[in-house]
Amino acid sequence: MPSSIIQWFPGHMAKTRRLITENLPLVDIVIEVLDARIPYSSKNPELRKLVGQKPVLTILSKSSLADPEAGRIWQEYYKSSGKRAVFTDCITGFGMNHLAQAVDEILSAKREKYDTRGMTGRTLKAMIVGIPNVGKSSLINKLSGGKSAKVENRPGVTLTKQWVTTSIGLDLLDMPGVLWPKFEDQIVGENLAITGAIKDDIIDQERITYALVGRLRRLYPNLLAERYKLGDLSQYEDLDDWDLFGVIGKKRGFLMAGGVVNTERCARALIDEFRQAKIGRITLERPFQRNRNTEQRAEESRS
Fold it and tell me: By C-alpha distance, which of 249, 244, 253 is closest to 270?
């Protein structure tokens, strides 16, 4: 994978880290927004250390694009881990009615504390954090009932902190969406690029699509075969993921002179169709999958 994906912008992360630390005393709760398609890869590994003992509510956005069965597995994982997570979708409105309830339950003790001090009705405050293009601004606009936060389907739109008043009695402090300085795990970098958290103009899209084909081949073979009219995938067992990518290009007619596959055009189409759920509702990660990958790599390094 190109180094531009593994190495990010330390200065941007340092600024956001400083903003989080400086403003943490102003809020009652931290809301971390993750991408429901990649709950592990979209989670900032530095957040827990930054927020300390401040309560955290996990919001998994873009649920209408994710696999519902995988979502149930993740929900059970969070529940068994003693963590509160709410799956939402700002397009369909799914899960939005559960968000206020979750905040109330987490902050019930704090509300009682305010009441005993004669501060009944005090507006609670939350800091909302998340990586680029994860859906933070869409969530804020849904809660505020207006266009309080700029929304675009590309990473890096929110560049400064901003306060937003919502309809659920909660003021939100929106933090800039940035990635951490370095990805230790190449799979994490690939997943972030596939879902659009990393700007498309700095990645090798053909390389990323090759990785996507491998994931779909393993996790959703039927959806892959149906979308691209591949028939029985067993007939391609001798082909690696790149060659299968070429087969898809031919099936879709992405050809240049001499019958050569236009890999750039094919890559753009596959990435777009994944992001729009035209291939199907897909989740690229499952709980504990990361541990298994790490153990496997450790075993391979010892052999």
Answer: 249
